[in-house]
User: Fold this.
Amino acid sequence: MIEARHLRVLRAVAATGSFSAAARELGCTQPAVSQQMKALEGSAGTPLLVRTGREMRLTEAGEALVRHAGGILAGLTAAEEEVAAIAGLRAGRVRLVSFPSGSSTLVPTALAALRAAHPGTRVSLEEAEPPRSVELLRAGDCDVALAFRYEGAAGAEEWADLVVRPLLTDRLVGLVPEGHPLARAESVAIAELADEPWIAGCPRCRGQLVEVCASAGFTPRIDFATDDYPAVAGLVGAGLGVAVLPQLAIESVRPRGASTVALEPAVRREIVALTLPDLAQVPAVAATLDELVRAGSR
Assistant:
């Protein structure tokens, strides 16, 4: 195998014409130069230098190797500098996938702090709900995925192969029209909403709603279903039904014509940031995870 350090020695010998002059230029001894040239010729499988009097002359193979050495060493230097920049967070790229309510609340705070601390780090953002976001992470299409799971839900081992950074616990709240009889209640048992028309959210949230209602002894009549939280809030505000939304979503929507009420018993979901074990060692990814944790703590 041809090593970069041997190429540097060959270039020095070619430029100076002798082992002794090359040794002075490189700041090493003549025997060290001679030893490295022997090792390089062994790797090449052919002589690279011939002695003519007091000078060394390149063979045809030596000339070919010197001709390519400049580009190889320049590319290696550029690669070393780029890696050093990434390791030092002067550069780097992170591909982040988040669900919508996380994109509008946690992500802006985290990325603003990341840019202030490490302006050379670039972050791209794509939206996807779990489990799609987790699939993108495992497929190598993103570096960090924001996801959630409901307390007590089955499948706690679904993230066993990933690095899991808890961000916050998000409580579900009821959303009812402002004129609803329960709009001023301190808390509402979900069974009190059994006869109401419902507006449901994303598929995973929809499934959770059906489970919670089933545990309260009824099946919700879902009149509308949409992945768009502002649309859910708008439909409730227009008096078309009631909904259950995560508190994080309420903070990002600011619903008009609707009131939030606490649900009893409490239903919570855990918000986390996920990455692969190897990616967790990448400085830019680690810094992004740290800022997401700080954003969640606020």
Q: What stands out?
A: The first helix runs from residue 4 to 16. The longest strand covers residues 163-177.
